[in-house]
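Narrative of activities, Objective 1.

The group set out to show that a structural description can be obtained from nothing but a protein's sequence at a throughput compatible with the screening campaign. Below is one input-output pair from the validation batch, recorded exactly as produced.
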Amino acid sequence: MITHPRAEELTEAVARWIDEVRPGLDPRNAFLARVAANMLGVVARQQQLGPAAEAAATERFIVLLDHQGEYADLNSELCEKLRAGTLDAATPGLIETLKANVLDQLAIDQPNYRHEGLAGGA
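Output recorded for this entry:
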């Protein structure tokens, strides 16, 4: 079985190359190259952190909705109940669940974002 290069290694290598060539690009393409490098970082973090974030969200949904299920199904159910007004801000555990899910997603999408809900954040 081939174990290298791993997806994380490939995305990191491409991002490094983009950062190397970016200074020689015109302003528009330098900006687009920076966006591309940032997207590769999101992909790498999604591969690294995504499974644990999804598992944690699933556990939170199970507690909140009071039954077992798969992430996608539980997430859809939660959305339906929010739209229908069956769950709202007064629902015990809802705000904590949503906040934890958002913070986990921020760790993937914008790891440098600091929020008062994060340890050490400002």
